[in-house]
Design a protein that fits this description.
By secondary structure, the protein is α/β, with parallel strands linked by helices. The protein is 19% helix and 31% strand. A hairpin with a 2-residue loop joins β24 and β25. The protein is elongated, with a radius of gyration of 30 Å. The protein binds adenosine monophosphate and magnesium ion.
Amino acid sequence: MLAFLDARHLVINESQRHFAPRTTLQLPTPDALGHILAEEIRTDREYPPFDRSTRDGYAVRSAEAQPNSTLRCVGEIKAGDTVHSPLPSGTCVQIMTGAALPPGANAVVMIEFTRRDGDSISFERPTQPGQNFVPRGSEARAGDVALPSGLRLGYAELAVAAQVGHSPLQCYKKPRVAILSTGDEVVPITETPGPFQIRNSNSASLAAQVQLAGGTPVTLGNALDRVDDLSARIEQGLREEILVLSGGVSMGKYDLVESVLKGMGAEFYFDAVAIRPGKPAVFGRCRNTLIFGLPGNPVSTMVTFQLFVVPAIDVLSGASPRSLPFLEATLSESVKEKSGLTHFLPAQLAWQDSRPQVRVLRWQGSGDIAALPRSNCFVVIPADHPDIPAGERVSVLPRIDVL
Ligand code: AMP
Ligand code: MG
């Protein structure tokens, strides 16, 4: 059986093979959060555009502003002021953070290290050339690449686009991800379930995970465990680039997803992964759609989505696939699992004096979503090291939605 990292590599390779040049759209800069940039953005001018003071104080010639020396203050410069005239020797000007140094000045002395007596400023400390200002052009030269194509746009990237005056931004269209739950027992969340029915929580979590991953969810409701209903709804799902199904991939008599897909011409790259929860996860392709059949137990669905569907969304978004953001933390209570499978256990990560500690939650297994709101990560228990005492370091997969 495949280890989860090998299964991920298969997903990444097949998604890359499958990737076609994407259509783009223009988005106002503030709306482009979470999109992948489809153009290269260059700076419009030097940054900073002038020698920019980083302190409130006095702009000086450093050689003249030494302990026990005194300079006459001949004016003030605040942020936004136009500055042309050179600083006459033997003088200084008061300057504010963000303001431009006058020509001739080569340092700013913080106001805290000066004394003022009328127009006369004296200095307490030695002054070094270059101190307390950012030289013009030292952050970026005019025409430098500020944001390369293919970059994921977070808040800092939007700030750079805004700084260089670039809006709208040309972005790749997000991949559309069809979501289809399966199961005779599953009813829509707007309905009251009968005594032996359950609400469709998987479609809710999957839609949220698709959005977090940078895709557009297309929910297709729930298919009954019948060949005709499954085929009809899968047919709808095959209009999208990715189809994610939940349930119906185990060994039961009514687990029909794989056989129905096969009948519709799907080929499979894997149909089991050595993990718990999530072992029966299926990945394949039918016509032009990548297909994931995730086990229906809600926590299995969540874990397998994070491990296998996210990299496919990354690739089809026009980005390079993100690594799994593993952290290391100290286990606060011992854990014992069966060997042979890599376990992903819902857990609570907290920092004590900035040292990460993690505690596995008590839970009833992969159907127990009631336990999940107390988790902010999954502890990863290796297949060959399933018995871990308290105090050991373990690998942790954060839930990026809440952590
Ligand atoms: P399956 O993978 O189809 O064997 O389903 C495994 C378990 O997950 C069963 O207990 C199902 O009732 C539950 N389950 C399946 N689909 C959903 C869903 N859409 N929402 C919540 N639970 C589900
Ligand atoms: Mg089922």
